[in-house]
Amino acid sequence: MIKSIIARLKQGYRTMPFPPAHMNLPARYLGLPRIKSPELAGAAAACPYGAISSGPEAGLDMGRCIFCGECAKAAPGAVEFTKDYRLCARSPGGLIVRDKDFKRAEALKGELRRIFRRSFRLRVVSAGGCNGCESDCNVLQTVGFDLGRFGVQFTASPRHADGILITGPVARNMELALRKTYAAVSSPKVVIACGACAIAGGPYAGHEECAGIPADIPVDLYIPGCPPHPLTILDGILRLIGRID
Ligand code: SF4
Questions:
Q1: Which domain holds residue 48?
Q2: Number of domains forming the structure of the chain
Q3: Dihedral of the CA atoms 60, 65, 68, 73 (nearest 10)?
Q4: Best substitution site from 28, 62, 64, 66 to test ligand 1's pocket, by max atoms within 8 Å of Cβ?
Q5: Does residue 51 come out as left (phi exceeding 0), alpha (psi in the -120 to 50 range) or beta?
Q6: In a domain, 144, yes or no
Q7: CATH number, domain at 62?
Q8: Is the same domain home to 229 and 133?
Q9: What is the predicted pLDDT for the residue at 13?
Q10: Which of 32, 65, 226 to mutate to test the pocket of ligand 1 (most atoms within 8 A of CB)?
Q11: Of all atoms in ligand 1, which is nearest to the CA of residue 72?
């Protein structure tokens, strides 16, 4: 017992401050894209997921992007990736990065913000995901990120939740489960699409076995990435409930 106490004292305080003053993300980490030139034809040709459009509406759609970096390699003068992990938006259109500043997710308004700001429970629905997004949600509950200190928790039951967080492209055999889970959450409730698959299908886009999030389940927050970094998920959730801006 005494050894355990000594070991715990040696470990010290492990929870990171959030938002962090400085964050040394790995060199290979690809965060918020920056469009350096409106000439994106070369970058668009290199993208395997059709996330980049050229022409008058040129831009990079983070909802489709899996952050593989191929576009920046093919056209380094047109696209680069920064280390900024703050990528979330309130609409699919808000995820499109053009040659001007990216507008981050705004908080819920009025009563919803008041209700959820200090206590927010989410039921995760893994709707055909590869477990990448699920793992990065799980790690938020460890001592390093300590999601609970913000009053945010993942629950085991939708009956105890204020909303659902969806991962995966919504395989057809998960569509009914998703609908039932959504229906079991009492109103008012919010929906979060976490990861490229949930937002736009990711690598499975267009596959006949992928239904996508049904149109009658309105999404309040889009968290891009494949998978999103835990910091991106945390940043998005806290922005949504008005804890940071
Ligand atoms: S990083 Fe995104 S936009 Fe660039 S090639 Fe990969 S999927 Fe396409």
A1: 33-85
A2: 2
A3: -10
A4: 66
A5: alpha
A6: yes
A7: 3.30.70.20
A8: yes
A9: 85
A10: 65
A11: 4
How far is the centre of ligand 1, averaged over its atoms, from the C-alpha of 87 (Å)? 15
**Cβ 102 under 6 angstroms from ligand 1:** no
Under a CB-based contact definition with an 8 Å cutoff, are residues 207 and 169 in contact? yes
Residues 105-136 have pLDDT tens digits of 999 999 999 999 999 999 999 999 999 999 99
198 C-alpha to center of ligand 1: Å? 17
- Cβ of 32 less than 6 Å from ligand 1: no
- Are 177 and 70 within one domain? no
> Which tokens go with 60?
């990079």
My answer on whether 147 and 235 are in the same domain is yes
Closest approach atom of ligand 1 to CA 70 = 5
Does the C-beta of 70 come closer than 6 Å to ligand 1?
Answer: yes
**228 phi and psi angles, rounded to 5 deg:** -65, 145
Query: How many beta carbons lie within 10 A of that of residue 189, not counting itself?
Result: 20
Residue 8 lies in a domain: no
| Ligand 1 lined by 51 (C-beta under 6 Å) | yes
Q: What is the pTM of this model?
A: 0.95
The model's pLDDT over 54-96, given as tens digits with 9 standing for 90+, comes to 887 889 999 999 999 999 999 999 999 999 999 999 999 999 9
The backbone torsions φ and ψ at residue 110, rounded to the nearest 5 degrees and listed phi first, read: 50, -125
